[in-house]
From TrEMBL:
Record's protein name: Amino acid permease
A Pfam short name: AA_permease_2
Coiled-coil zones: none
Taxonomic placement: Bacteria, Pseudomonadati, Bacteroidota, Flavobacteriia, Flavobacteriales
Organism: Thalassobellus suaedae
Membrane-spanning intervals of the chain: 12-37, 43-63, 84-106, 126-147
Keywords for this protein: Cell membrane, Membrane, Transmembrane, Transmembrane helix
Subcellular location(s) of the protein: Cell membrane
Membrane topology term: Multi-pass membrane protein
Length: 152
């Protein structure tokens, strides 16, 4: 089943995509998660990290294989749609979007919690909301300006 490329511009490139993946891994996994895992698992938490790293590497290899077979843009949504049809692609896109929203919320709350440990004013719910709003509004502005500026 061959699909026609709809002409979306591929402007990120290999360097930008690699930097984005590293940024997501560091942002999600280096600030709050290690402390939580170490408090629950103790010394065996390093084994859990190595095991999870191997699992994530296997998932990344699956995405690389799918990316080499499907030439359209769209990521996981396009891969699922090509393999299983429109409805499965739609459901995959909904779950992917939901997971990203929950992940962004968790990381931004963890960031504000870390800042609040040094500056107690950030424990106020209005200050927390305003800080997160300003953070995401700034990211939206950078994205609206252009994807190339967001990478650099």
């Amino acid at each position: 089943m061959t699909q026609k490329d709809e002409g979306l511009k591929r402007r990120i490139g290999v360097f930008g995509l690699s930097a984005n993946i590293i940024n997501i891994i560091i942002g999600a996994g280096i600030f709050a998660l290690p402390a939580i895992i170490a408090s629950k698992m103790g010394a065996s938490s390093i084994i859990a990290y190595i095991f999870c790293g191997i699992l994530i590497a296997l998932i990344m290899l699956c995405f690389a294989e799918a990316g080499s077979k499907v030439t359209n843009t769209g990521g996981a949504y396009t891969y699922i749609e090509t393999a299983f049809g429109d409805y499965a692609g739609f459901i995959g896109g909904i779950f992917s979007t939901g997971a990203m929203l929950f992940g962004d919320a968790a990381v931004s709350n963890a960031l504000i919690n870390l800042i609040a440990s040094a500056y107690p004013i950030f424990e106020n719910e209005y200050i927390r909301f305003l800080s997160i709003f300003i953070l995401f509004f700034g990211l939206v502005c950078i994205n609206v300006i252009g994807i190339k500026q967001g990478i650099v």
